[in-house]
Design a protein that fits this description.
Layout (H helix, E strand, L loop, with lengths): L7 E7 L6 H9 L6 E8 L5 H11 L3 E7 L5 H11 L4 E6 L3 E2 L3 H7 L8 E9 L2 E5 L6 E3 L1 H4 L10 E3 H6 L11 H13 L2 E12 L10 H14 L1 H18 L7 H10 L7 H14 L1
Parallel strand pairs: 1-2, 1-4, 2-3, 6-10
Antiparallel strand pairs: 4-9, 5-10, 6-7, 8-10
Helix pairs in contact: 8-10
Length: about 290
């Protein structure tokens, strides 16, 4: 263990995934970076998850902190429980069904710059043995709050200072979806722009999600809750978003749901009807 390097806390929240959890844990234990604290937060699992965790604690040379809920209280509660016991200078998360590439933590520490509220990167999607680079940016990119509030440009996991995540109150336990995105919005609002690197160091696995059902109405409802929780930020940035849509219209597809949400929720600051008609017409033309 190299204690000359800053301690990085990595939290994994889990619920009834004893068969998937070892892959995630192993990817943290095998990191090339040498000063890591692993925190596993068990959200009231009723399978053999606790047995798996205790076996790792017994056999691992890495510091593993174990916290749990006796009954399921939700992923956000489990995340916050992990954050509250963390002791690293930096912190990052990992879903129990995903994994880190071996040099993920080392890359983030090496390339950390205090001027950014947090950093993130691209990721791999893996399903049925096929791995594809996704969320891909060819160059390192800098994003502001205005960029983030209408699109999650940071992905589902970020790397930041523990004190910053604690200062904003961690994750919003009232949200059931897009809770990561909403948390990044508050981080960017408090600490400024963030940086996304052009490399991939996170692997999302999807084989176990093949039967999951999702639809646009669910996404819209979740998005509306984010807006309601951060109404002032959206009021201040709505005009910026509309202008950006108009500028990028001929280069990018525009999400019709975003436009309709904006129209419904920001009436006092929304675009004129003629602009809305142009945007809607453009969107349906691209479908």
């Amino acid at each position: 263990m190299n204690y000359s390097k800053p301690l990085v806390s990595v939290y994994i929240t889990t619920h009834n995934r004893c068969n998937l959890l070892p892959r995630a844990v192993d990817s943290v234990l095998n990191q090339s970076y040498e000063n890591i604290e692993l925190i596993i937060s068990n959200d009231g699992s009723s399978d053999e998850t606790e047995d798996v965790i205790l076996a790792y604690i017994k056999s691992s040379a890495l510091s593993i902190v174990y916290v749990k809920n006796d009954i399921p209280l939700g992923a956000n509660n489990a995340r916050n429980k992990a954050i509250n016991v963390a002791s690293g200078l930096f912190i990052t998360g990992l879903d129990d069904d995903d994994e880190f590439c071996l040099d993920r933590v080392d890359k983030f520490v090496t390339n950390w710059n205090d001027r950014y509220s947090f950093v993130s990167d691209n990721f791999f999607n893996e399903s049925s043995g096929y791995r594809k680079r996704n969320f891909l940016k060819k160059n390192n990119s800098i994003y502001s709050l205005d960029d983030l509030i209408f699109r999650n440009e940071a992905s589902n996991q970020i790397f930041t200072k523990l004190e910053r995540l604690k200062s904003i109150g961690g994750f919003n336990e009232q949200l059931k979806k897009y809770q990561d995105w909403e948390c990044w919005i508050r981080l960017a609002n408090s600490y400024g722009k963030f940086k996304r690197f052009n490399w991939c160091s996170y692997i999302m696995h999807h084989d176990h999600e093949l039967n999951r059902v999702s639809n646009n109405s669910n996404h819209r409802t979740a998005y509306e809750k984010i807006i309601q929780q951060n109404q002032v930020l959206y009021d201040n940035c709505s005009n910026v978003y509309i202008e950006k849509c108009l500028l990028q219209m001929k280069y990018y597809d525009i999400n019709i749901n975003d436009i309709l949400i904006a129209n419904n929720l920001f009436e006092k600051k929304i675009m004129a009807k003629m602009f809305l008609k142009r945007l809607v017409k453009k969107c349906f033309r691209r479908v």
